[in-house]
Amino acid sequence: xxxxxxxxxxxxxxxxxxxxxxxxxxxxxxxxxxxxxxxxxxxxxxxxxxxxxxxxxxxxxxxxxxxxxxxxxxxxxxxxxxxxxxxxxxxxxxxxxxxxxxxxxxxxxxxxxxxxxxxxxxxxxxxxxxxxxxxxxxxxxxxxxxxxxxxxxxxxxxxxxxxxxxxxxxxxxxxxxxxxxxxxxxxxxxxxxxxxxxxxxxxxxxxxxxxxxxxxxxxxxxxxxxxxxxxxxxxxxxxxxxxxxxxxxxxxxxxxxxxxxxxxxxxxxxxxxxxxxxxxxxxxx
Length: 285
Hints:
Helix content is 33%, strand content 22%. It has nine helices and ten strands. It has helices at residues 4-7, 53-59, 94-111, 133-153, 163-172, 192-200, 213-216, 248-256, 271-282; strands spanning 35-41, 63-68, 74-80, 115-121, 126-132, 178-183, 204-211, 222-226, 232-236, 261-266.
């Protein structure tokens, strides 16, 4: 709730979505829309059907009424609170950074008249349909807090696949809606990429890849570890961690080739640094 003030910084006409269709393409729908926009003097080329009779009679000169298209933005924020996200070496856990970024984005969308919903993958799955205004965001923040508390209290276990929660999020969105997933994608599960591609055919999908500094450059040395099945040991950062998976940029490139809007979120940056990134993402939703 305390991040609301950050979400509104720099908001203006240039940061709002310019497209009535999913994605970042600037498009224009046919027709003049139904929402009144302005009344102005007649200009050469104006359609006589748009003449405003009241303003014309009051001023004695021709005036026309302009309209704009009505645009209902429905966005579902999907937070990954599985066991692998409850990790962090700088400032916060990856799960906390994901929640901060999603809330900043949610406040921006709600402030511009959009509706925001929530799905959480974790020990206590949460699904809130898109709602508008401050009350909708208050419910979303409460859902995030409760789900994160449950994730921290739950026993350590292997990550379940993300595909079922993707399907749950799809049922909350109308055609043409937007889904924003914040996750480190450590263990997305079999068929996750294929499920994302199929989902992107119906709604706009954006990916926020959460990254901890230790993952990118692990200091040399030996690190103790424990696994969910009770095994313990010591691993070398250079020998084990460095070869565990591709760099964040390579992972993002793979999903970008699938047609998704992607960005990297570094946990050590903090909400002040997340705000400009969410402003850029908001502009294409």
